[in-house]
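hey so u asked for the seq, here:
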Amino acid sequence: MGLEIERRFLVGGPQWRDQVRWSRQLQQGYLSRQADGFTLRVRTSRPITPGDCAAAAAQAWLTLKAPAPAFQGVPEGLVRQEFEYPIPLADAEALLALTALQLSKIRHGLALPGGDWVVDVFAGSNAPLVVAEVELTSADQALTVPAWCAQELTGQHAFSNAALAGRPFSTWSPEQRDPLLEVLQAWA
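ran it, C-alpha cells below
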C-alpha cells in the first residue's frame, strides 16, 4: 500500500519565492470524488522553467487516493493511501475532457529542509489561494514550519484539491472566504 503523509498550510506572503527550485503548470481533473475521501484523479504537468532538469518534458499521471487505516494519535487527513501511475499525455488529455471537475495551478518545488516542500498557486476560480504542502516520511516527523505558513489546513477537506475542483474558492460565501482573505492580506 502506498501512503502519502502530508501537511498543508495556507501561505501568507511572498517569502517562499526565494526557495523556488522549479515550477510546473498542473491541470487536474477528478473522474471520481466521494465524500469519504476516495478520489480518482488525472493530472498533466508541463514545464515552466526553461532548462531546469526537474522541468524536463510534459508528463501525466492517474492517481487514486483513499482514506488510510486509522493510526492512533495521528490527526485526521495527515495520512492517506495513494497509488499513482504514469500514463501517456494524450490519454490524460482525453480523460480531462471527460470531467468538469478540474482545477489549474502552478506548482513550485522548494529547497527547504524537513520534507518535500511545494507551493501551489491556484489559478482561475481558485485564485488567490496559495497553499504549501510538505510530504513527510513518517506521521510523527519533526517539522519546522516556515514563518510564511499563515494557517495549517491539514485535514480541512474544503481545501483539498478534489473539493476545490468541485466547489472553487470564488464560490464560497463571504463568511467563509473573507476571513481567509484577511489573513492573506495581513501577511502581504
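The chain is about 15% helix and 40% strand. The helical segments are 89-96, 161-166, 174-187.
lmk if thats what u needed
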